[in-house]
Amino acid sequence: MNREETLVRIGEIVNTHGIHGKLRVRYHNEDKKGFLSYKSLLIRNPLGRLEPFEVTEARIHRKLVVVQLHGVDSIDQAERLVGGSVFVERTALPEPEEGEYYWADLIGLEVTTTEGKSVGEIVRIIPTKASDVLVIAAGVEEHLVPATEEVIKEVDLVSRRMVISPQEGLT
Questions:
Q1: How many Cα atoms sit within 13 Å of 29 on the Cβ side?
Q2: What is the pLDDT of residue 1?
Q3: 86 and 15, same structural domain?
Q4: What is the percent of the chain where pLDDT is above 70?
Q5: Same-domain status, 146 and 87
Q6: CA distance 78 to 111
Q7: Could you read off the pLDDT of 75-115 as tens digits, one per residue?
Q8: Which of 11, 31, 103, 152 could be joined to 27 by an S-S link, Cβ 3.0–4.6 Å?
Q9: CB of 136 within 8 A of CB of 86?
Q10: Are 106 and 122 in contact (CB under 8 A)?
Q11: Dist. CA 84–CA 68, nearest whole Å
């Protein structure tokens, strides 16, 4: 197993915060408090380089998390990380509850309807107030499907597939 397989993407850096190197992070979890427990993060900067950082401060600010990383002390250093992805080791995450899944585990799943029709592959997930929305790609077409219990009928992480109830526009 390579290093990349042990990591889970938990958010992205959307902007700087102030002039002392703090970063605004969009965390991929409704419960922002969970982010505050991380002592170290790995960040893939916009150039693709993965770097480890110690978290020296983290707090919730509106719908984002504001983070101070050891060694990132100026706005210039922070700006180089904006647009980057935030990862943690999978072992740092709690086991998901029954019927809950980490986004990283859903990306790449093959999606079919309950009738067996192929819909495509989950390529990303969009958070919304009501529910997350799965973006399913089929060639050049993309389908937006709400990630609700009414829609998702089965998730099989071992077989890397998801079964959904047919949605208007998918049949």
A1: 19
A2: 47
A3: yes
A4: 95
A5: no
A6: 38
A7: 999 999 999 999 999 888 888 888 888 888 899 999 999 99
A8: 11
A9: no
A10: yes
A11: 15
